[in-house]
Amino acid sequence: MSKFHLDRVNTVIIPVKDLNESIQFYEEVLQLRKGYVDESMAYFSFGSDGNETTILLHVIDQPEPVEKGIVIELSVDNVVSAITSIKEAGGLVAQEPIDRDWGVKEAIITDPNGYKLWISQPI
C-alpha cells in the first residue's frame, strides 16, 4: 500500500512550436498570470494562494497537438461569458457551449498549436 497521496495537479506542460504566439494566447485570450519567460519556455498560473496550477509552455521542434489521451479542462464560473470573452480576444472556438447530461455546460477552444481545451461549469 502506498505511503503518499497526491494533493493536486501542480503543472501542466504544453509542448509548443511558436512560443510568442502561444504566450499571447495564454496571456491575452485565457488571461492567465504570466511568470518567468525565456527563449524556450514560459510559465503561467491561475488559482488562488495554496491552490494554484502552473501551465508551462515549452518549445519543441515537432509538437503533436492532437488528442493523445489527455485533455485539459478548465473550470469557470460562466462558460457563456468565458467563450464570449475568448472570441473577443481572438480565440478559436471549436465547440460552442452546450449542456451535457452529466451536469456540466461545456465548450471547447483551440490554442495556436491545435490543442483543445475544454471550458466547463457545473449546471
Automatic annotation (TrEMBL):
One Pfam family cited in the UniProt record for this chain: Glyoxalase
Residues covered by the VOC domain: 8-122
SUPFAM superfamilies: Glyoxalase/Bleomycin resistance protein/Dihydroxybiphenyl dioxygenase
Gene3D superfamilies for this protein: 2,3-Dihydroxybiphenyl 1,2-Dioxygenase, domain 1
InterPro entries: Glyas_Bleomycin-R_OHBP_Dase (IPR029068), Glyas_Fos-R_dOase_dom (IPR004360), VOC_core (IPR037523)
Listed name of the protein: VOC family protein
Biological source species: Allobacillus saliphilus
